[in-house]
Amino acid sequence: MMIEDLFRRPYHEYLNDIIKNMVDGVISENEVLVREIKEWLESDTRKSMLVGEAYYRNKTDIREKKRDIVWKSNIKLEHGFAKKLVDQKIGYLLTKEPTIATEKNQYREQINDVFDRKVLKTLKNVGKEAINKGIGYLYVYFDERGVLSFKKFPSEQIIPFWKDDEHTELSSFIRVYNESIYMNGKKQVLTKIEYHYPDGIKYFLLEGGKLVADVPAGIEVTHHFTINDQPFLWTRIPLIPFKYNEEEQPLIDQIKSLIDNYNTQASTNSDLLADIPQFIYKLINYGGTDLKEFLSDLNLYRAVNLDENGDLDKLQATPETDATEKELDRGRKSIYEFGRGVDTTDANLGNASGVALRYRYSDLDMDCNILETELQASLEHLLWFVNEYFLMTDQGDFTKESVNIIFNRDIIIAESDVIQDCQNSVGILDDKTIRENHPWYNEEVEKRLEEQSQKEKDEYDNYLSTFKEKRGGLDGQET
């Protein structure tokens, strides 16, 4: 043994220190959740979501406009461009009932039963959420009757943890929301936390920057649903993202500054018109005591007292607003250009031909094409849960069946052009595909066609049967 070994710390003590430092450096799962929550609540992404929601409700920054002089007007004009553009996209793409195209009629009928009007309304609202906030979320759950159901979660409440860089599927997520309760006769607002992970859901309350167990909510559940009192977990996180675009960027990011400028210009112009009087009176040697008496005499008697060599003249104020009006026109065009919408106040829109209308709608159509691509990917994800539901409830195994959801767009184009295109496709495409792309096609039309086809078949069978009977009688007479 060397002399320096006598003064060296024993190895086990050195190893214990290493382990202690490692343990001290590792934070608990709850601490990680708290850090993620604090970071999310202060993030620019969440703030942008809240701005998008506010501007959709026409609550804009013009409300912060101040006046520098007491007597000046402080008019605050808000223009609902954001709401109009969002509703235009939703109305164009998601208000009409989609067409479910699949080879098996039973499968189509079962999907239609799931996608009832309530679910279609929820999907429309999730689409609106995606445009306003960049991304929307649809939660999959079973209601109290054991029926597969869907709920929209406000996007600002969701902290996603993605499995991949392209943000296609979640590995887990946190939901942060406030809930008001009455405790001891007083109203209190609780910050509730739900941590959804592959093994279930944990429930917390955020108090003083720390997570505490939410006992009334159940603390933790290790299943998503039950069938015949048997607990089950989805093999995927039951939250489906619906994106506005690949970047998850809300519409408001493109148009906020343009809307703010338009509101400012319009409000400032209104202030100018309100503060400049229509007429200015010029008085020389006025015989009254003050201006109040002058205005009273003028309004009451249509005359005023003047001293010797007195005179009264009227000057008309004509404020120049042409430059402001031109700026407002430019601003409006920019909002619709970069918001990718259609300005319905365009005087030439009503007289436009079918080709011209397609051109006017090209930006809206392009934006909705991008949105539809994202929605199709999300609906494919949604159908996975629907197929699993059918399988678990013994309604059939459709996991290998192909299905196509066709969005029926609502655009003011000449429907005759679309109908002509369908007619020109006869012999090139099958009849079912042509019907599904016809502007008047829906499930009710398909049912009527099937009934009509069956009726014609029955009539032909009856005719053929009657003809054979008569033919048989004639043959008997001849013999």
Summarize the structure.
This protein has 479 residues and is α+β, with helices and mostly antiparallel strands. 47% of the residues lie in helices and 20% in strands. It has helices at 11-25, 29-41, 44-56, 81-93, 105-114, 117-133, 252-275, 291-301, 322-338, 354-360, 362-392, 415-424, 431-436, 443-478; strands at residues 99-102, 135-142, 148-153, 158-162, 170-183, 186-197, 200-207, 210-213, 220-221, 225-227, 230-232, 239-243, 279-286, 306-316, 403-406.
Explain this structure.
The protein is an alpha+beta fold and 479 residues long. It has 14 helices and 15 strands. Strands 4, 5, 6, 7, 8 and 9 form a six-stranded antiparallel beta sheet that branches. It has a three-stranded antiparallel beta sheet with strand order 3-2-12. A two-stranded antiparallel ribbon has the order 1-15. Helix 7 (252-275) runs antiparallel to helix 9 (322-338). It is flat and about 125 Å long. It starts with 10 loop residues before the first helix and ends with a helix.
SSE order? HHHHEHHEEEEEEEEEEEHEHEHHHEHHH
Distance between the termini: 131 Å
- Share of residues in helices: 40-55%
Major pleated sheet: 6 strands, antiparallel
Question: What is the 3D shape?
Answer: flat
Structural class by SSE content: alpha+beta
Count of alpha/pi helices: 14
Q: Pick out the low-confidence regions.
A: 1-7
The beta-strand count equals: 15
